[in-house]
Amino acid sequence: AYLLGLWPDSADYKLLIQERGRIAALDEAQSQPVSAGALLKLGATGPRVLELKNRLLGPDDHTDVFDEALDRSVRIFQDSANLQTDGLVGAATLAVLNATRVDWIGRLDANLERWRWLPQQTPEDYISVNIAAFEMQAVRRGVEEFAMRVVISQPFRETPVFAEDMRYFVVNPYWNVPFKLATEDKLPKLQSNPQDLADTGYQVRPAGDEAFIGVTQIDWSCVNRGNFNFLLRQQPGPENALGRIKFMMPNDYAVYLHDTNDRSLFLKRERSFISGCIRLSEPEQLASWLLHREGRPEDAAKLSAQIAGGTTRTINLRQPVPVYIVYFTASRSVDSDLVFRRDIYQRDARIVQALRDA
User: Fold this and answer.
1) With 0-12 CB in 10 A as exposed, 13-18 as middle and 19+ as buried, what is 25?
2) Calpha distance 174→340 (Å, rounded)
3) Quick check: 33 and 55 in contact, CB under 8 A?
4) For site-directed labelling of 308, which of 76, 170, 301, 322 has its Cα 20 to 30 A away?
């Protein structure tokens, strides 16, 4: 009983423990993996298609043609594995398809370890963003009240894992472009056609000056990373990359939650497209929830009008709420089943190796 009391107090943790025991008790499957190679899709032929049929459909007298029946089976498999359901068998689908019992146990061990990094007892109210699931949850008095889709960073600019308190949010924010993004992403555009950025609300303030000026007033031809002595920002408005609301939990990574002016990315199954911060599909719902949580329904009722008004406003929270940015590649679904998700940042293997080396 004492040892059990040391475990994280979470139904998700217990579900991972149960699943690990179940998989560990299974016999290792003897089917052969699908060889690595070019993308397989409808109409493809060859020995790798035959391997795919044997792996997915079981051994039989199959043809080596990627036919309609195989395409349907691939899509069903992708959907069950929480992959993009496109019928294309590339590296992501093969990684799940070829996984062995030992692989699954390793993934469970990595996620069990992640639970041990969190507080043993979570607070009654908190916000959790599971990067690997592309989802945010808002929990009130220990019960999830709503969830929403999020868009996270691309693998070459990974969204970090951390915990901080959300202290305020800003309606109609300016976007102060981080130095890295300003020099790597925006500077080439400023040098090729600064008017494009001017048209979408960008301004610049040279070092030592107090006022912002239009980006077209600077000669960018001789500017590089070494002499980029400017603060680049985007004004509030429909083109602003942060959308209409940003939620601030001050941290060492300069990562926060925010709205977006591009809603199309939320339609994707896997949503790792951006750099740095986390985009929310329903930011106004989160803002309203935060205000109602503090007993401020009258402020929540004003939100839509404040957004439409266009004026920048900072709204401080009287009761900061904990925010956990986590990365669980195995987690509980809405139906309380365990769902494995693609390890988009390739973090599981590093944890498994560290556990073996410990």
Assistant:
1) exposed
2) 38
3) yes
4) 322
Report the C-alpha gap between 40 and 148 in whole angstroms. 33
User: Which are the contacts of 78, defined by CB distance < 8 A and separation ≥ 6?
Assistant: 84, 85, 86, 87, 93
Residue 181 to residue 177: CA distance in whole angstroms: 6
User: pTM for the whole thing?
Assistant: 0.82
State the residue for tokens 């009258």: 298
Q: For residues 166 and 292, what is the distance between their CA atoms, to the nearest angstrom?
A: 15
Residue type present at position 288? S
At 180, list the tokens: 């890295």
Does residue 347 contact residue 327 with C-beta atoms inside 8 Å? yes
Which residue from 259, 261, 224, 271 is spatially nearest to 239, judged by alpha carbons? 261
List pLDDT tens digits, range 120-176.
888 999 999 999 989 999 999 989 999 999 999 888 788 999 999 999 999 999 999
Residues tagged active-site: 258, 277
Look up residue 89 and give its DSSP letter: B
